[in-house]
Amino acid sequence: MDWLYTLMPISGVSIFWPGLIILGVGVGIIGGFFGMGGAWMVTPALNLLGFPMAFAIGTDITHMAGKSLISTMRHGKFGNVDYTLGIIMLVGTILGFEVGARLIMLLEGLGYVDVVVRWLYVALLTFIAWTVFADIKKRKAKEEAAAKEGKQLDADAAGIEWHKTLHKMKIPPMIHFKAAGITCSAWVPILVSFATGALAGILGIGGGLIRMPALIYLVGCPTHVAVGTDLFEVAISGLYGAATYTMKGRTELVAAMIMLIGAAVGAQVGAVATKYIKGVGIRKAFGCAVVGCAVSILMKLVQFEAMPGWMKDFLNGCASALVLTLVTLMSLYIFVRMVQGAKMELAMKKAKQQPPQQ
């Protein structure tokens, strides 16, 4: 089975190349759908496949930048991108990302990078999963209350509305974001993007894992606009991050290109799927994906020195299988829902074109 493994020239490790293809196509679909680069899945997955953590981070950021650019162009056609908001957030993202990347280099020198990054991933994924499902629960209560009054809740309405508190901050300049339909102080998106950028630099992600829910719950964007705007932000910040990690010698370009080929196709599918799956549907799928990713990382963290080698191999195999299975199932779910939505849309158009019966 040696033919299933290929040597990476820069990192010097042998990698299961079919896993790179699965990740590229699957995360292309998932990233285009959720509005993020998908590094919250790919960075730990690359580490589980055999890349040292620093190389996993740099390689994924490089592949992610190109894929997100493709998805952004598709979302722009649907009017899902608030370019003004995205450009303003770049200020905080770039500053935060550089802080995070420098911290990673420091941790690598001390020999703590793998442990720190994995535990930070688990803590962050746990918090995000709680936020998403708490939001869904509160939204359901709002739906029931609206139904009693004979009203219908908007598809993009959120249960958690932290953004209303932040919008009370009236520090100039105040800006109206047309595509997002909100008006707030420019400092709100700048501070949010700085925090997400710093975490992105540490975790090796474009920030989408944090920024997409932050745009919904802290900035107040509708879900579909948060998806498109975040992809725009991921593409730009990803290009900067790719340059940073490449200059530091932590990017495996062969692996990045293998994944990017598949991701370019998958990103188109994911972006189109947001036309048919709206609001709470996107958030539910996102929450399930976050939980599965957290479990896979925990399988790696529970290992200890005295543990038998066969058990470590078993846990590593289960963790890798879980991530790849999660990517595959989420991709299939998104693809099937997209096909169903497209068929329904075509049927409705066909019905309208038919002449009325006499």
Provide a brief overview of the structure.
This protein has one domain (2-343). Helices cover 74% and strands 4% of the residues. It has 12 helices and 4 strands; from the N terminus they run ββααααααββαααααα.
Strand-residue proportion: under 5%
Residue stretches low in confidence (pLDDT < 50, at least 5 long) are: none
The first-to-last residue Cα distance is 68 Å
Work out the helicity level: over 70%
Outline: globular
- Could you give the count of β-strands? 4
Overall SS class? mainly alpha
Report the total helices: 12
State the domain count.
1
Q: Overall mean pLDDT score? A: 78
What would your notes on this structure say?
This protein has 358 residues and is mainly α. It has one domain. It has a two-stranded antiparallel sheet with strand order 1-2. A two-stranded antiparallel ribbon has the order 3-4. It is built from twelve helices and four strands. 49% of the residues are buried. The mean pLDDT is 78. Strand 3 (174-177) and strand 4 form a beta hairpin.
Which keywords apply here?
74% helix; two-stranded antiparallel ribbon; 358 residues; 12 helices; mainly alpha
Describe how the helices and strands are arranged:
Elements: E1 5-7, E2 14-16, H1 17-34, H2 39-49, H3 53-77, H4 83-110, H5 113-148, H6 163-166, E3 174-177, E4 182-185, H7 187-203, H8 208-219, H9 223-247, H10 253-273, H11 279-301, H12 309-353
Antiparallel strand pairs: 1-2, 3-4
Helix pairs in contact: 1-2, 1-10, 1-12, 2-3, 2-11, 2-12, 3-9, 3-10, 4-7, 4-9, 5-11, 7-8, 8-9, 10-12, 11-12
